[in-house]
Protein backbone atom coordinates (compact mmCIF):
# COMPACT_ATOMS: atom_id res chain seq x y z
CA UNK A 1 0.00 0.00 0.00
CA UNK A 2 2.77 2.42 0.89
CA UNK A 3 4.78 1.62 -2.23
CA UNK A 4 1.67 2.21 -4.34
CA UNK A 5 1.10 5.48 -2.51
CA UNK A 6 4.67 6.71 -3.04
CA UNK A 7 5.27 5.54 -6.63
CA UNK A 8 1.76 5.33 -8.07
CA UNK A 9 2.43 1.71 -9.00
CA UNK A 10 3.87 -1.53 -7.68
CA UNK A 11 4.61 -3.39 -10.90
CA UNK A 12 8.23 -2.96 -11.90
CA UNK A 13 9.30 -1.49 -8.57
CA UNK A 14 12.67 -2.89 -7.48
CA UNK A 15 12.71 -3.72 -3.78
CA UNK A 16 15.74 -5.10 -1.97
CA UNK A 17 15.21 -6.88 1.33
CA UNK A 18 18.31 -6.87 3.57
CA UNK A 19 18.90 -8.94 6.70
CA UNK A 20 17.70 -12.31 7.95
CA UNK A 21 15.52 -14.03 5.36
CA UNK A 22 12.34 -14.52 7.40
CA UNK A 23 8.52 -14.47 7.19
CA UNK A 24 8.49 -10.76 6.30
CA UNK A 25 10.87 -11.45 3.43
CA UNK A 26 8.61 -14.27 2.22
CA UNK A 27 5.61 -11.94 2.34
CA UNK A 28 7.49 -9.48 0.13
CA UNK A 29 8.40 -12.25 -2.32
CA UNK A 30 4.74 -13.29 -2.42
CA UNK A 31 3.69 -9.68 -2.99
CA UNK A 32 6.20 -9.40 -5.80
CA UNK A 33 4.90 -12.55 -7.43
CA UNK A 34 1.33 -11.22 -7.30
CA UNK A 35 2.08 -7.64 -8.39
CA UNK A 36 5.13 -7.76 -10.64
CA UNK A 37 7.39 -6.05 -8.09
CA UNK A 38 10.99 -7.26 -8.37
CA UNK A 39 12.33 -8.48 -5.02
CA UNK A 40 16.04 -8.99 -4.46
CA UNK A 41 17.10 -10.58 -1.19
CA UNK A 42 20.52 -9.84 0.33
CA UNK A 43 20.53 -12.09 3.38
CA UNK A 44 23.52 -13.93 4.82
CA UNK A 45 21.18 -16.39 6.54
CA UNK A 46 17.65 -17.70 6.46
CA UNK A 47 15.35 -18.46 9.36
CA UNK A 48 14.74 -22.23 8.95
CA UNK A 49 11.00 -21.76 9.60
CA UNK A 50 10.87 -19.38 6.61
CA UNK A 51 12.18 -21.81 3.98
CA UNK A 52 9.59 -22.09 1.18
CA UNK A 53 11.26 -23.53 -1.92
CA UNK A 54 7.98 -23.67 -3.86
CA UNK A 55 7.49 -19.93 -3.38
CA UNK A 56 11.06 -19.12 -4.38
CA UNK A 57 10.89 -21.29 -7.48
CA UNK A 58 7.57 -19.77 -8.60
CA UNK A 59 8.89 -16.24 -8.06
CA UNK A 60 12.18 -17.02 -9.84
CA UNK A 61 10.27 -18.42 -12.82
CA UNK A 62 8.10 -15.28 -12.90
CA UNK A 63 11.23 -13.11 -12.80
CA UNK A 64 10.19 -11.35 -9.61
CA UNK A 65 12.72 -12.83 -7.16
CA UNK A 66 16.45 -13.27 -6.91
CA UNK A 67 19.00 -13.66 -4.16
CA UNK A 68 22.17 -11.59 -4.18
CA UNK A 69 25.41 -11.63 -2.26
CA UNK A 70 26.31 -8.21 -3.69
CA UNK A 71 24.78 -5.88 -1.10
CA UNK A 72 25.94 -2.55 -2.54
CA UNK A 73 24.96 -3.49 -6.08
CA UNK A 74 21.53 -4.67 -4.90
CA UNK A 75 20.93 -1.37 -3.09
CA UNK A 76 22.15 0.66 -6.08
CA UNK A 77 19.61 -1.11 -8.32
CA UNK A 78 16.68 -0.50 -5.95
CA UNK A 79 13.76 1.84 -5.62
CA UNK A 80 13.06 0.61 -2.08
CA UNK A 81 15.22 -1.04 0.57
CA UNK A 82 13.50 -2.97 3.34
CA UNK A 83 14.79 -4.51 6.52
CA UNK A 84 13.45 -6.25 9.60
CA UNK A 85 14.85 -7.11 13.01
CA UNK A 86 17.80 -9.49 13.09
CA UNK A 87 16.67 -10.93 16.41
CA UNK A 88 13.00 -11.77 16.91
CA UNK A 89 11.37 -9.40 19.34
CA UNK A 90 10.61 -12.07 21.94
CA UNK A 91 14.32 -13.06 22.08
CA UNK A 92 15.98 -9.64 21.95
CA UNK A 93 16.29 -9.27 25.74
CA UNK A 94 16.12 -12.98 26.62
CA UNK A 95 19.32 -14.00 28.47
CA UNK A 96 18.97 -17.54 27.12
CA UNK A 97 19.29 -16.15 23.58
CA UNK A 98 22.38 -14.01 24.36
CA UNK A 99 24.93 -16.08 22.42
CA UNK A 100 22.69 -16.37 19.35
CA UNK A 101 21.97 -12.64 19.50
CA UNK A 102 25.69 -11.86 19.58
CA UNK A 103 26.34 -14.26 16.69
CA UNK A 104 23.64 -12.65 14.58
CA UNK A 105 24.86 -9.14 15.32
CA UNK A 106 28.38 -10.12 14.25
CA UNK A 107 27.14 -11.85 11.08
CA UNK A 108 24.63 -9.18 10.11
CA UNK A 109 26.44 -5.95 11.03
CA UNK A 110 27.69 -5.47 7.44
CA UNK A 111 24.00 -5.53 6.38
CA UNK A 112 22.87 -2.64 8.57
CA UNK A 113 20.90 0.08 6.78
CA UNK A 114 22.99 3.14 7.55
CA UNK A 115 24.23 6.39 6.04
CA UNK A 116 27.32 4.75 4.56
CA UNK A 117 25.37 2.01 2.76
CA UNK A 118 22.74 4.44 1.48
CA UNK A 119 25.12 7.32 0.62
CA UNK A 120 24.08 8.85 -2.68
CA UNK A 121 21.25 6.36 -3.16
CA UNK A 122 17.84 7.60 -4.29
CA UNK A 123 15.87 4.90 -2.47
CA UNK A 124 13.01 4.79 -0.01
CA UNK A 125 13.52 2.89 3.25
CA UNK A 126 10.97 0.56 4.82
CA UNK A 127 10.85 -1.47 8.04
CA UNK A 128 7.81 -3.26 9.44
CA UNK A 129 8.63 -1.97 12.97
CA UNK A 130 9.42 -2.02 15.76
CA UNK A 131 13.05 -1.38 14.89
CA UNK A 132 16.15 -1.96 16.95
CA UNK A 133 18.01 1.27 16.24
CA UNK A 134 21.72 0.69 15.91
CA UNK A 135 21.25 -2.92 14.83
CA UNK A 136 19.42 -3.61 11.55
CA UNK A 137 18.99 0.12 10.95
CA UNK A 138 20.79 3.16 12.27
CA UNK A 139 18.83 5.84 14.10
CA UNK A 140 19.80 8.41 11.49
CA UNK A 141 18.20 6.33 8.72
CA UNK A 142 15.01 5.85 10.75
CA UNK A 143 14.75 9.66 10.77
CA UNK A 144 16.10 10.17 7.22
CA UNK A 145 13.82 11.89 4.67
CA UNK A 146 14.03 8.70 2.57
CA UNK A 147 12.42 6.70 5.39
CA UNK A 148 8.77 5.89 4.80
CA UNK A 149 8.53 3.56 7.79
CA UNK A 150 6.01 5.67 9.67
CA UNK A 151 3.81 6.08 6.57
CA UNK A 152 4.03 2.31 6.22
CA UNK A 153 2.96 1.85 9.84
CA UNK A 154 0.03 4.24 9.42
CA UNK A 155 -1.10 2.41 6.29
CA UNK A 156 -0.91 -0.91 8.11
CA UNK A 157 -3.28 0.53 10.73
CA UNK A 158 -5.82 1.48 8.06
CA UNK A 159 -5.46 -1.92 6.38
CA UNK A 160 -6.13 -3.70 9.67
CA UNK A 161 -9.20 -1.54 10.33
CA UNK A 162 -10.53 -2.52 6.90
CA UNK A 163 -9.85 -6.19 7.63
CA UNK A 164 -11.70 -5.98 10.96
CA UNK A 165 -14.70 -4.36 9.26
CA UNK A 166 -14.67 -7.09 6.60
CA UNK A 167 -14.56 -9.82 9.24
CA UNK A 168 -17.41 -8.17 11.12
CA UNK A 169 -19.46 -8.19 7.93
CA UNK A 170 -19.61 -4.39 7.73
CA UNK A 171 -18.04 -4.32 4.24
TrEMBL record:
Keywords: Transferase
Entry's Gene Ontology BP terms: citrulline biosynthetic process; L-arginine biosynthetic process via ornithine
GO molecular function, one term: amino acid binding
RNA-binding as UniProt keyword: no
Enzyme class: transferase
Keyword tRNA processing attributed: no
Pfam families (alphabetical): OTCace
EC number: 2.1.3.3
Residues of the Aspartate/ornithine carbamoyltransferase Asp/Orn-binding domain: 11-165
Stored InterPro entries: Asp/Orn_carbamoylTrfase, Asp/Orn_carbamoylTrfase_sf, Asp_carbamoyltransf_Asp/Orn-bd
PANTHER family in the cross-refs: ORNITHINE CARBAMOYLTRANSFERASE, MITOCHONDRIAL, ORNITHINE TRANSCARBAMYLASE, MITOCHONDRIAL
Similarity comment: Belongs to the aspartate/ornithine carbamoyltransferase superfamily. OTCase family.
Protein's recorded name: ornithine carbamoyltransferase
Organism whose genome encodes this protein: Geodia barretti
Amino acid sequence: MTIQEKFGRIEGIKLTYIGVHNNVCNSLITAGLKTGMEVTVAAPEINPAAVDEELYEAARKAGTYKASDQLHQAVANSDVVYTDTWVDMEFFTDPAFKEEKERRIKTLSPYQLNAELLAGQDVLVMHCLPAHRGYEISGEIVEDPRSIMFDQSENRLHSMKGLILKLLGAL
